[in-house]
Amino acid sequence: MVIERTEARQREQQPGTLTVFQANRTEPLGECVRRAIRYYLRNLGGHEVNDLHEIVLGEVERPLIETVLDYTQGNQTHAARLLGMSRSTLRKMIAQYGIRQQD
To answer: Alpha-carbon distance 5 to 86, whole Å?
Structure first.
């Protein structure tokens, strides 16, 4: 599992970048997230971070939305239903994360 902040796609570790180099695929998702956050916090290297909540949400929400949209073959109504949100909320999140859909 590799978690990486959208704006920071470089390989070097920096504030705003979450990376897990090796994950136990039998672990629940919550444990993978916990390990990634612990690793991130241990490796801040003195950098100030004040948006960890936003970073983590972005790293979980974006692939969740992309995966569900892929599963529903781009059907936003079906995807929104699976995600438990309105279609308008899903559309806002698609725009927020800059998710491009195939036509």
So the answer is: 26
Is the pTM for the entire model greater than 0.90?
no
CATH assignment of 52-103?
A: 1.10.10.60
pLDDT digits (tens, 9 = 90+) for 37-92: 999 999 998 888 899 999 899 889 999 999 999 999 999 999 999 999 999 999 99
DSSP string, 70-92: HHTTT-HHHHHHHHTS-HHHHHH
CB 39 within 8 A of CB 73: no
CATH 1.10.10.60 positions along the chain are: 52-103
Q: How far apart are CA 74 and CA 72, in angstroms?
A: 5
Q: How far is residue 61's CA from residue 42's CA, in Å, rounded to a whole number?
A: 24
DSSP string over 17-55: ----S---TTS-HHHHHHHHHHHHHHT-TT---S-HHHH
